């Protein structure tokens, strides 16, 4: 799977989750934007010369787990919400920016 199709599938899952998880479509779109932004921050750091690190709490492997979780686990059993995912992405972006800045000093 190439990078653009992975981003397309992320978008489909998170927008769909916005509809499925309580019909909160805005959080689904925000989750999509943040997931893609998180990936591009890491990629921009790599291009600038920083090491390619996958930091949590919502690094690539964590986002993929959430995608799988949102598809497999029934709504009545879900404990993770898109708001939690969005905050995790914001924390990940801040940590990644910090790590990139230290690596490029």
Mean pLDDT: 79
Whole-number total of structural domains: 1
Total helices: the number is 4
C-alpha end-to-end distance: 34 Å
Helix content: over 70%
Structural class: mainly alpha
Instruction: Give the radius of gyration.
Output: 14 Å
**How does the overall form come out from the CA principal axes?**
elongated
User: How would a crystallographer describe the biggest sheet?
Assistant: none
How much strand content do the residues show? Answer: under 5%
Taken in chain order, the helices and strands follow as HHHH
Q: Can you count the beta strands? A: 0
Low-confidence stretches are none
Topology:
Layout (H helix, E strand, L loop, with lengths): L2 H18 L4 H24 L11 H13 L9 H23 L1
Helix pairs in contact: 1-2, 1-3, 2-4
What do you see in this structure?
With 105 residues, this protein is mostly helical. The protein has one domain. Helices cover 74% and strands 0% of the residues. The chain contains 4 helices and no strands. Helix 1 runs antiparallel to helix 2, helix 1 crosses helix 3 and helix 2 runs parallel beside helix 4. The chain is elongated, with a radius of gyration of 14 Å. The mean pLDDT is 79.
């Amino acid at each position: 799977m190439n990078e653009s199709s992975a981003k397309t599938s992320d978008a489909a899952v998170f927008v769909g989750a916005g509809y499925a998880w309580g019909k909160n479509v805005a959080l689904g779109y925000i989750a999509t934007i943040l997931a893609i932004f998180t990936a591009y921050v890491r990629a921009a750091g790599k291009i600038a010369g920083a090491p390619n690190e996958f930091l949590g709490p919502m690094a690539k492997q964590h986002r993929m787990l959430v995608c799988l979780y949102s598809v497999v686990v029934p709504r009545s059993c879900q404990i993770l919400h898109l708001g939690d995912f969005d905050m995790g992405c914001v924390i990940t972006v801040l940590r990644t920016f910090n790590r990139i800045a230290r690596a490029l000093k």
